[in-house]
Structures are given as structure tokens and as C-alpha cells.
Amino acid sequence: MFESFGYFMQGMATACQPLNLLFAFCGCLIGTLVGVLPGIGPISGVAILIPICATVTSGLPADQAATSSIILLCGVYYGAMYGGSTTSILINTPGENSSVCTCIDGYQMAKQGRGGPALAICAIGSFVAGIISVIGLLLFAQPLANVALKFGPMALFSMMVLGLTALSGLGSKSMYKSLMMTAVGLILATVGVDPISGVARLTFGNYELYSGIEFLTLAVGMFALGEVFKTILTRDYAEGEVIKVGRVLPTKQDLKDCAPTILRCSIYGFFQGMIPGCGASLTSFMAYAMEKKICKNRENFGKGAIEGVAAPETANNAASGGAMIPLLTLGIPGTGTTAVLMGALIMFNITPGPLLFQEKPDIVWGLIASMLIGNFMLLVLNLPMVKVFAKIIETPAHYLVPCIAAISVFGVYAVQLSVFNLAFMLATGVLGYYLPKHGYPIAPCVLSLILGSMMENNLRRAMNLYNGDVLMLVKDPLSLFFLVAAVLWITVPQILKRRGKDVVVEDT
Amino acid sequence: MKKLFAIALALVLVLSLAVCAQAEYKQKNVTIIAASGAGGGLDTAARSVAKILNSEGLYTAAMTVENRPGGGQVTGTVEFVNKYGKDDYALLVVSTPFILNHIKADGNSPIGPEEVYPVAELQSDYGIIAVLADSPYDTLTELTDAIKADPDNVQFCGGGGPGTWDHLNAMQVAHAAGVDVQTVKYNTYDGGGEALTALLGGHADAMTSDVSSIKQYLKAGSVKVLGVSSAERLLDDEIMKDVPTYTEQGINVVTSNWRGIFMNKDASDEAKAFWNETIGKLCATEAYNTELKNFGMQNTYKNAEDFMAYLKTEEENYRAVYETLGLRLK
């Protein structure tokens, strides 16, 4: 471990060279701009920049070029993640799947004129999560690598059941309505080519549907267009009242309130991120759902609680730190981002895998140090920019609404290049207006679309593994643990309520 | 005179138009679709093509590799044909399953060799059967005997669904060893990377994969490779040279997984000609061959014409394999 620490300090020294700091700055700036557009999320942002990066650094010696490029790419990644949360908060448009939960409280905060603190807490939470993941990597990288592998198909399935259970309480007063929307999302997740047998399902012979229903199309349609339709139809804008931007930075009280949330979510996110195959999205949903249960300010979740913004953003950042463990120690990319980073490493002739820690410790720790630098740069860069971004919400509705609609169409078309998806987005936009109006929350639908296919694959693998013996789900200790947690998640609040305890329960 | 001048001018215009029509292929940003998740052999192939084309100066604009996993390459292939209609700046990297999906009944891919333009075969990769380093099985015979004794005891994992190349690699071995292939337990994962996660985590007993995906894990000592699908041992490979072939162990199977690069059949002729030539140059570079050697792959470059013919024979061969194994054909 002391050896690791030495390498880490060396990595920090490399990352802090003026040229590398400049790279980190440029990366964060480009990333933030890229992330603000829906459609171009962190993964595509980083992927697009990899070749450009190689050109820019081509004059440098090989090792230095690798380090500098990776610093730039990490910057782009964190910038884009941050940019994604910016649109979630300001215009209710999640740019990528891990920022869906940020919409719920973030957009409410923005509507109350607290967009500034919401944006700032994202940067602060991410930074703290970054520091905690680096500490986690220093301490646990090697001992925990193999533990993460113990999560087999059954445990992953049960973990996602727990995730869905937790989600079912989101954004609605009625648990039944939430569960119905969860089921709709799960059905939508089965559309497309079945990943296990390759059979086309619910595609009606339409090849556009072979790759399934794209998360982005549904999320942008339901969240952003739904909000656009709502503004137009309910004449929100007619009152002529423009939301004032209040304070830009969070108050001391805000920071104090968020501190326990940020700490819990950092630690939780790091460990969850380590498990290959569950991704940053599940982690951020679970963190939000967990905080909704245990946070002091839980009554205000869904109505603009700053903790509700801090939780998913912190956790998803911590998860990308945790995901470095299987990547660097086993060569297994656990999330989309680590897959892209792996691509970048391969480009510089560094093959992540079991030998990387022994063979190229300087690169490994340089990469870890650059994650930290990326987060720090983001904080420096974005706290002043928060003020500018937060002004967006002051734009009168008759300018803002058409802009949101245009950005949504542009974003979805840019990624899918298909008119079919635009039509689909419009249709979901109509649903995104009517469903919440009648108390059917849209977040569980979008989230279960993301989790559905992962859940299905894992269940089918587990069944195949144990000859269709469903009881194995409770015989496997890890799986049993998650299933029990899921049951408790639903029943405990109900029991407490029956006993007349003062708890927040989703009414039925 | 004026008339003559007008005619001359018209001629010049027409000629310049003709020149324009035959315009050269301009080097602009290219998207390479790898029809699998990140981290597997197919993804690595696509990424090394992009890397070496740039580093050798054969292609100067940016090349972006995008992963499209799912459906054993059907998702990526169908999406490629739909999304990039006549795009001159989109390439597809797929492997043997491209043919398999087209001939099998379940999860049939509407896209066959006729629906795309096969630019070139890039490389081929031999199959392997691997187990964990502390596994009780040391030879293929021990493994297949264990399946014969109790099929429920041995769980295979692989990066592709039933009827894909990974699956066939295991099933052909089992069949040749006299095992009833219908009893073999097999679990599908999204790509070789995820399958390997399952093997290392003890969620499977044996894994079907290829040399390039397993090599570094063999070097690190975390797996044992029981056999390789080449005709002769890979003696010039430091890490693989001690691994016996299937045939050495009395299992009469020799097979390999090709990877190729494709364009849309409606792409312009300039684009087709350009990529045909450029990939040819690429496959002759030292950098490319060094890379293949590092990964443990074979350079089996074929140009567009030969590749098309090869795809046709592959289709015939695999129809026969499917029939032998009792899998359903379209």
C-alpha cells in the first residue's frame, strides 16, 4: 500500500505539470459544453475526442502523450457528466441515464430559483466523491478485485430487483401507479433482439426496433418534451412572472445538510461501482432512493431538496471511481465510461488486465491522479460558470420553450439519425404530459427501461446455470440478502405506519 | 466566333462536371461500428484498425469506434445497414456470426453478404476452451468425460448466444468427443469480456473464447487453456506455444473465427475503391502485423473479391455444421 501511495504521489506530480493542468482545463471545458447538449453524453464525447487527442499529443514522448491524453479525456468525461446534470436541473432534460434522478429534485429547485446551489452542489459532491474514490483505490484496489467477481448472475438479478423496488417509490403519491409505470418500463425493455437467443421480440418486423427502445429517446421525450407540452398547455408562461435566480452558491446550511448525504453516497457509490455489470445508472438511482428513506430532509424529496440533487450526482461519480478496480486489475470494463477509457489505454499500447498494476504502475496511478485533477478542475471551472448557466432559467418562457424543443429534436436526431425515433420521441412527449398530470410518475418508467434488460439477462443466465431452479435465488446468500432488503424496503415503512410512527410512506 | 466560344465554354463546363463526378474520396471523420461490447476480440480488432490507419498515416481524419452490442452482432449489423444508408464514412467490423446469424432460424439476421459490401478480411482468431487455473480438468478429454458423466456438472460460458461462433466452438468439440450436444449447458454473456468475468468469478466451469481474448489471462496465470482450434500448435507465440491443439487430443475439429470489415453496398464506388486499397495497405504494414502477433491473431487478409467468395464458402460449411449439430436452419 505504501508503494501504491508513492506511485500515486508520483502520478499527482505528473498530473500537476503546467501542460497537463492545461489539458485538464481544456478537457473539462469541452466536456461541459458537450454535456450540455442532450444526446452527446460522456461516452460519445470521450469517444469522439480520443482520436483528436492522439493528434494533439503526437509530438510528445510516448508515455507522456498517454498520460496527457488520458488527463484530457478524464476531463472531458467529468465535464460531460457535469454538463448532463446541468440540463437535468435547468431544463428537465437528462443527457444520460445516470442523471435521470437529478431531474426530479434539480428541476424543482431551478423552478424555485435555486438552480445555482443545485448546480454548485453537483460539482462539490462530485469532487468529494472523487477524493473518496481515490482513497478507496489506494486502500482496496487489489484486495477487493476478486470480491467484486463473486456477484454472479443471481446476485446481480436480485440487486436489480432491489433497485426496482426502491425506484417504485419515486415521484408519486401512489405506489400502485409507480409500480404500473415500472411494469411499463420493463415491457419496453424487452423490445428488440433478445440478447440471449438472438430472437427478435416485439419488433413487428421493424428493424428500427431491433436495437430496442433507446433510453435517450424515451427520457428526452418524457422529461423534456413533456415539460414543454405542459408549459404550453397550462399556460405557465402567461403569468408573465420570470423566476428570479437567487443565490448562486449554496448556503452554509445547504452544505451542512448535504455533508452526510455526500459522504454516504460517496462510500456507497464506490463499492457498488466496483461490481462489474451494474453500472453508474443503477448506483445513482439506488443512492437517490436510499437517501429518500434515510435523509433528515426526506419529506422534501421530489419537491426540490438539495440532498436529492447531491445524492445521485455524488454516487455516480464515486461509482466511476469504483469501476476502475475491475478495469485496472482484471481488464474488465464495468461501465460505459471505463470501456471508453479502456479504448484510450489500448490506443497507447497499454492493455488493461491482470498484469497492469505490476507492469505499468506509473500509468495506473497517473490515471487515478488525473481523475482527481479532473474533478478539481471542474470545481474551479464551474463554480464561476454556475452563475451564467443559472441565468438560463430567467429566460422568458416564449423563448426558452421553443429552444428546449429544438434541442431535444436535435439531440435525439444527432444520436439516432432516424425519423422513426423522432416520431417515437414526440409520442412519448405527449405521454410525458398526460401521465404525470394523472399522477403516473415517469421516472420509474424510464429507469426500469434501463434496468430491465440487465435484469432479464441475469435472471436467464441464473436459471440456465441452475437448471431453472428458482429456489436458487434464495439459496445464494448474496442474492438472498438483496431480496430480503427489497422486501423490507416495501414492508418496513408500511408496518411503521400502521403503528402510527411518523414516516414518509407512499400512500396507496 | 461567338457561337464557337459558347460551345467551347459549354464543353469545358461539361468536362469539369465529369471531373467533379469522379472526385476523389475525401478523408473525413469515419465511424467504425464494432458489433459487440467493449473489451472483446472484435472491439480490439476495430480499435487497432483505427489506431494503425491513423498512426501509419494511411488515413488522416479521425476514426471513431462505436460499440453496438447485443443479439450476437445482429443488432449492430442491422443498425449499420439502416442507419448509415449510403454513408461513405461508416465501416462495420463483424466476424463469423455475421454469416451464422444469416443462416440460423432463431434470431435470423436479414443481412447477408449480398446486403453489404465486404471490403476485406482483416484477420482470424483460433478458438480455445479455457478453465480456471485451479480447475480439476487438465485436458479436453477430462472435461468432455465429465460432461458425459453428468451434463449438469459442467457449465460453459461464452460471449455469444446459441448458434454463434463461440457457441459452435464448444459444441463442435463436445460433438467430436461423442457428447450429446443437446445436454451441454451453455450460458450467454454480452461479449468475451463479460463471459470471462463469469469464469473468473466461478459462475461457469469452462469458457469458449478465442486466443486473443484469453492470452493475457493465461500469461497472468488465472486460467488454464485446455485446447486450441488451430491445425498445428502456435509455436511462434511465446504464451500459447505449450497449449495442445484439439486434434492432438483426438478431437477432430479445426476452426477459426474471421473478422472482416464491411461497407454499405450503396456506398459510392470511390469510397469502395479507396477502402479496398487502404485496408490492403494496412494489412501489409509492420505495425499491423506486430499488433496481430501480440494479440495472438493470424493475418488472413483477403481483398474484397476473395473475401466475398470466402463468405460464400463459409456459408456452405456452417450450414453443414448446423445440420450435424441438429441446430435449426432458416
Write a structural description.
The complex is a heterodimer of chains A (about 500) and B (about 325). Chain A is mostly helical and about 500 residues long. Chain A has one domain. Chain A contains 21 helices and 2 strands. Chain A has a two-stranded antiparallel ribbon with strand order 1-2. Chain A is globular, with a radius of gyration of 22 Å. The model of chain A has no long low-confidence stretch (mean pLDDT about 80). Chain B is α/β, with parallel strands linked by helices. Chain B has 2 domains: about 30-125 and about 255-325, Bordetella uptake gene, domain 1 (D-Maltodextrin-Binding Protein, domain 2), CATH 3.40.190.150; about 125-250, 3-Layer(aba) Sandwich (D-Maltodextrin-Binding Protein, domain 2). Chain B has 11 helices and 9 strands. The mean pLDDT of chain B is about 85. Chains A and B meet through helix 3, strand 1, helix 14 and helix 19 of A and helix 2, strand 2, helix 3, strand 6 and helix 7 of B.
Summarize the structure.
Chain A has 508 residues and is an all-alpha fold.
Keyphrases for this structure?
heterodimer; A: mainly alpha; two-stranded antiparallel ribbon; 1% strand; globular; B: 330 residues; alpha/beta; D-Maltodextrin-Binding Protein, domain 2; 2 domains
SS-derived structural category of chain B = alpha/beta
Order of helices and strands of chain B: HEHEHEHEHEHEHEHEEHHH
Count the E strands of chain B: 9
Low-confidence regions of chain A: none
Structural class of chain A: mainly alpha
- Helix/strand order of chain A, N-terminal first: HHHHHHHHEEHHHHHHHHHHHHH
Rg of chain B, Å, rounded? 23 Å
CATH fourth-tier homologous superfamily of the largest domain in chain B: Bordetella uptake gene, domain 1
How many domains in all of chain B? 2
Count of distinct strands of chain A: 2
The CATH class label of the largest domain in chain B is: Alpha Beta
* Strand order, sheet with most strands of chain A: 1-2
Helix amount of chain A: over 70%
Largest sheet of chain B: 9 strands, mixed
Strand content of chain B: 15-25%
- What is the C-alpha radius of gyration of chain A, as a whole number of Å? 22 Å
* Helix share, percent of chain B: 40-55%
